[in-house]
Structures are given as structure tokens and as C-alpha cells.
Amino acid sequence: MDPSQVSVPLLKDLTIDNITENVHAINSQCPDSRLKYLLERLVSHVHDFARETRLSTNEWMTAINFLTAVGKICSDVRQEFILLSDVIGLSLLVDSIDHPKPSSSTEGTVLGPFHTHDAETTDNGGVISHDPTGTPCLVLCTVKDTSGNPISGVKIDVWETDSKGKYDVQYEGRTQPDGRAVLESDNEGVFWFKAIVPVPYPIPHDGPVGKLLMLLKRHPYRPSHMHFMFEKEGFDHLITALYLRGDPYETSDAVFGVKETLLVDLGSADAEQARKYEVEEGGKLMTYDFVLVSDSEAKELREKEAMKAMESLGRKMKLYQGLPIPDVD
Amino acid sequence: MDPSQVSVPLLKDLTIDNITENVHAINSQCPDSRLKYLLERLVSHVHDFARETRLSTNEWMTAINFLTAVGKICSDVRQEFILLSDVIGLSLLVDSIDHPKPSSSTEGTVLGPFHTHDAETTDNGGVISHDPTGTPCLVLCTVKDTSGNPISGVKIDVWETDSKGKYDVQYEGRTQPDGRAVLESDNEGVFWFKAIVPVPYPIPHDGPVGKLLMLLKRHPYRPSHMHFMFEKEGFDHLITALYLRGDPYETSDAVFGVKETLLVDLGSADAEQARKYEVEEGGKLMTYDFVLVSDSEAKELREKEAMKAMESLGRKMKLYQGLPIPDVD
Fold first, then answer.
1. Residue B93's pLDDT band (boundaries 50, 70, 90)?
2. Hey, are the CB atoms on B45 and A41 less than 8 Å from each other?
3. Which of A109-113, B34-38, B54-58, B265-269 has the lowest mean pLDDT?
4. Is the ipTM of this complex over 0.85?
5. What sign for the dihedral angle of Cα B308, B313, B316, B317?
6. Which residues contact residue B304 at a Cβ distance below 8 angstroms, ignoring those fewer than 6 apart?
7. Which pLDDT band holds residue B329 (cuts at 50, 70, 90)?
8. Going by C-beta distance under 8 Å and a sequence separation of 6 or more, which residues neighbour residue B268?
9. B56-69: average pLDDT
10. B288-296 average pLDDT score
11. String of DSSP letters for B32-60
12. Average pLDDT of span B9-38
């Protein structure tokens, strides 16, 4: 690039006090106003962090090495940066911001790093877990809109660990998916499948994120839960999970995902259910009525909350593709 | 870990508004008060960043993928996280905080990702670059303390690119170091060596950091410079560089390293110098008088500036191993 084309301020003699405004100045050439705003806030926060902590060169190098190790351990079946985001509460926060829920709808929670795109499509009634030592559990749910109308044809991803607390992808030599499936709600908005009772498990803690948790004296456990993801044109994507009430880790989830409204008590299948769904009478039963928000409801709420947050920060902003950018004339 | 041993608040129903205080609460079990403070500030800034930008799930995933790519491209000879830190001005900031300089001493600047630990020890007068197409340059310097006394026995690391703007480690199949050496100052605090005239070069921009610079419409160039690092017991580590005045990128360095006091004009060797240092008369000559700060001067200044910064932030802090931590009774 021809340096004479660079219309930036003279970057020289940068100090603790003037480096931030100068980085902003050179980044202000960015033609994408959303990216420019993201970078402006990011650089401000990173610099303030260093100034407020008087970050030492040794600590900086420790952070560089930590982030490098986080990247290095990522693979097709392990996403350590998502794990890092999860354990610092960022994942829960971003989901809450991006998927606001009216009180009548099902709350969201963290996606986690174990969703895959290779789960098999299963008819209602399908067996999603083939772990013989798991306790069988019939899962019987409905999915409706906020007015109480059943929604048919919703694509539902479900995934859970085996009875040892491990997802299929955590086993070397995995040849096919297990403990996961893709279902579709029927005309009554009903979907059901045969799974196993979820168990608590530690998030992968043999890597850099596990070391960080150890230094913080935090345990790596998640309470027993089953993941659900709902997709249908016209409805806001819902990433959520159901948690077993009374789990020992119910109030200390390593990734901050538990919500009161997502806690369930397991029931047992009565004679009629046993016959209808072909399970043992008295076997474990998990039921839940999910409520999806329409895209337009979610968009309206998201934008209203975004502008409210911007106002409370005293920033003059406008929305661009639903996301705030500075409102400069 | 036995969950009954976890003395944390009940983490449930976490929202945009209460997630931060709850993450702080669970991290507050950390026995290392400096790490606890670093995490507290880090989590606050990361969360505020997400709240202030209303970070979307898509943007979050883009960031996760970006950081993963930054980690993946790191190798024994490439440190993309340092590069990222450099281009957002963090490296310059951390160096300024950790190595404060009294006005009588030589300023520091960014280390960059190309220092290695395998440079050969060279006697004064040694040839550090074997690039036949480089323009030979005699480098003749002194190193003194802030009272003007020469310092002997200082270990000096120097490194520069070849005439094509590439460091040795950027070539595949590198078998031995070149364009770098470790020297020692003599009894008069003098050190000299035979190098080549530095040239401008782009930082590695074929990776994720290069892509970011392109999105920001920033060029990846650094002005011509030669790196120097000084180490001697009792003196604050000095990481610095000399820049050629008048370089086309003098005021738009991609990593914000240029300082007025570190700009040099190349001279030419006179007849006596040519004879004494065994170079061609009229050949390029770079001279500089470096001034090191003693450990105790640096420590005093660092701690004074840290406490001043904490006071201006209104934080009640104390120093622990020279770094601020909250002063809680």
C-alpha cells in the first residue's frame, strides 16, 4: 500500500495516556460502521484493563501463552474458546442479549461446545441414546407459540451425554453420532423420543480452561441437563436446556446456565403412556411445554432493549441491521 | 470436587444485569489476590463490551472463530497473538506501564514477535547479517546509566530483517540464525557490530491479523528499524529499537512503536572509523547512546505511577509484589 494514501494522524510518541485515541484514529478508516464501533469499544476496554491493572509484561506474556494454548487445543470436536467464554459468563450474557424472551416464552441458556451438525434425523419415538447402562427416560414435549398455538414442523436438535457424563464426540474413534438426534414436531406441536436420564458431568478440564478453573478454585461440573435447540422459519432460534431439579450442582453450574423455569422434576410413565409410547410402566418420564417467540416479537424486544441500554449509557446511537452504531451526522 | 464444599452464592437465573456480579462472586474464591483482581477487571470489561455493543451471537461466533484461527497459526516461529496485541496498541501500552522511563533514559518500544533465543554470541565487530544484497552499516553505540557512567558487561540482543524485509525465522528450512546476535558492552560501555541498513517491511499479514487489518483499511507496514534488548543485573530490562528518520512509514507504524527519541539519521564512516572498525570509508554508520535505568529507579517510578493511577480511578489499592491489588481490611 502506498503510504501517501494513508490519511491518518501522525502516530508517534505514543504513551500510556494517548495510545488509545491514536489506535481509534487509525481504526476510524474502517468503512464498516458496526465493525468500527466494535473495535472502538474493544480497544478501549482492553487498554483500560491494562491501565487499571498496571498489567505487567510477565502477566501479558502469560495471557499470550494462555490464549495460544486455548487455540492449539481446539479441534473439530473441541472448542476451547467457547468453553472459555462459557466459564466467564460471556456465553450466557450474549445469548440473553441476542435472544430476549417475553415472560410468556421459554428462556434460553448456553449452547456449550458439544452441539454437532451430524446428528441423525429421528422420527418421533426414536431412541437417541444407545448407552445400555443409562436409565431409560421417555421425553414428551410440546412446542407452542406465545399465544398457545401448537407449532408443527419445528426442527428440534437434542443432545445429551451418556451415563458416564461424556458426549459422543469426547470419545476417540467416534464413528457415528449417539446421544443426539434431530426431530420434528407433529401437527399438535408434540415431539417425543427415548433418551436416558441426564447425569452431572465436568466440562473438559484437562486443557487451559481447566487449569484456569483450578487456579480460581472452581469446580468444572455442570448439573444434569439435556440440550434442546429449536428452529423454524418465522421464529427466533431457541437454544435451551432442561435441568433436573435437586442436582448437586444445581446452584453452582460451571457455565452459569441454570434457570428456575428450566428445572424439571422427572415423573414416571403411567400405564397408558407405557402402552402408547412403548416404554416400561413406571419408567422415567421428562415432560416440558416449550414456547417459541416469533422473529418479529424477538426483533422488536431486542431493538427496544438495545436502544434503552444505549440511552442509559448516554450514547447517541442508531440501529443498523438491528445492532447499534454511533449516530453521527 | 464435593459440591457441598463450594461456598459460593446460588448461581441461578442469571441475566444481562446480574451475571457480572455472580461471576465475580464465584471467582472470589481464588486464593491469589492479584489473579482475582485481574479476573475481576477482565470479566467486567468483557461483559461491559458485550452490553455496550449488544454483541450478537453471530458476532460472538465470528470472534470465537477469529481467536481460534489466531491460535492455530501460531508456531515455534510465529506468534500471531503477539501480533494481534501489537496492532491494537496493547503491546506498546504494556511496555510503557511496566518499563517507565525517567526522561534522562532511553525509551522502550514494542518487542514484536521475532525475537528468538538462539542468536549467536558475537564479539564486538562481528558481522550479524550475511545478506549479500543488504547495504552494509556499521552500528556503533554506547550504553550508560542515568548518571552518565558507562556500563560494561551488558548483554545486548540485536535483530533485524534482511534486505527483503524478512526475518530469518520467516524462511522455511531455516537452519541457523542470521540478522541477529548477542553482544556484550566493553569496559567503556561500547558495543559495535556490522549489520545492514534496515528496510521497511510488512508484519506477517497472510493470517487472521492481516485479514483484520484489511477490514480496518490499515496497511501492515513497519518503518525501517533495528531491534535492541539490554539485560544486566541491577538494571531494568530495556526493549527498544532505532528507527530511520524519514522512512515512508515513520508516522503510520502498524504496531505504534515509533518515538521521536528513537529516530536516527544514518551517518557515514570517516577515514579513522573505517580503519579502526574495518569498514569502507563513507559506508553507512548508525550511532546511538543508550541509557539504562537501574532496577530500583524503575521500581520506584513504576510503583509511584501505579498508585497514582489507582488513586485517579478512585480505587483503594495496595501494592503486592509491585502490582496493585485491592486494599481490603
1. very high
2. no
3. A109-113
4. yes
5. negative
6. none
7. low
8. B282, B283, B284, B285
9. 97
10. 97
11. -HHHHHHHHHHHHHHHHHHHHHT--HHHH
12. 91
**Cβ atoms of A180 and A128 closer than 8 Å:** yes
CB nearest to B16's CB, from A37, A69, A97: A97
Mutate to test the interface with A, among B250, B252, B319 (most CBs of A within 10 A): B252
Q: For residues A259 and B21, is the Cβ–Cβ distance under 8 A?
A: no
Cβ atoms of A124 and A277 within 8 Å: the answer is no
Task: Pick the closest to residue A109 from A250, A6, A255, A294 (CA basis).
Answer: A255
Give the residue-averaged pLDDT of B115-121: 92
Quick check: A5 and A17 in contact, CB under 8 A?
Answer: no
Nearest CA in chain A to B311: A52
CA distance B172 to chain A (A): 21
pLDDT cut 70: percent of chain A above it: 97
pLDDT, tens digit, 9 for 90 and up, residues A298-319? 999 999 999 999 998 888 899 9
More confident residue, A194 or B104: A194
Interface test with B, best of A231, A252, A299 (most B CBs within 10 A): A252
Question: Given B54, B82, B217, which is nearest A324 (Cβ)?
Answer: B54
Between chains, do A64 and B45 touch, taking CB under 8 Å as contact? no
Cell matching residue A102: 417475553
Whether residues A46 and B41 touch (CB distance < 8 A) is answered with: no
B257 pLDDT higher than 70: yes
Q: Given B11, B39, B252, which is nearest A3 (Cβ)?
A: B252
The one-letter amino acid code at B76 reads: D
pLDDT tens-digit profile of A128-153?
999 999 999 999 999 999 999 999 99
Contacts of B65 (CB under 8 A, 6+ apart): none
CA distance A316 to chain B (A): 12
**pLDDT tens digits for range B154-180:** 999 999 999 999 999 999 888 899 999
* Region of residue A305 (phi > 0: left; psi between -120 and 50: alpha; otherwise: beta): alpha
| Chain B contact set for A165 (CB, 8 A) | none
Q: With contacts defined as CB-CB under 8 Å, which chain A residues touch B22?
A: 89, 256
User: For chain B, what is the mean pLDDT?
Assistant: 94
CA distance B188 to chain A (A): 30
Entry pTM: 0.92
Exposed, middle or buried: residue A280 (CB in 10 Å: 0-12, 13-18, 19+)?
exposed
Task: Report which of B28, B34, B33, B36 is spatially closest to residue B11, judged by C-alpha positions.
Answer: B28
pLDDT at B299: 94
Grid coordinates representing A70? 486455548
**Residue contact B88–A324, C-beta within 8 A:** no
Note whether A217 and B30 are within 8 A (CB): yes
Q: How far is A75 from chain B (nearest CA, A)?
A: 9
pLDDT at B121: 96
HSE, side-chain direction, 13 A CA sphere, residue B148: 0
What pLDDT score was predicted for residue A1? 47
Residue B1: per-residue pLDDT: 47
Sort out which chain A residues have CB atoms less than 8 A from B211's CB and list them.
none
DSSP state for residue B262 in the 8-state scheme:
G
CB A256 within 8 A of CB A92: yes
CA distance B121 to A105: 69
List, in sequence order, every residue forming a beta bridge with A121; answer none if it has no partner. Answer: A182
Query: Do residue A67 and residue B68 have CB atoms under 8 angstroms apart?
Result: no
| pLDDT of B225 | 97
- Distances in Å between the Cα of B251 and the Cα atoms of A1, B40, B174, B222, B260 are 14, 36, 33, 10, 10
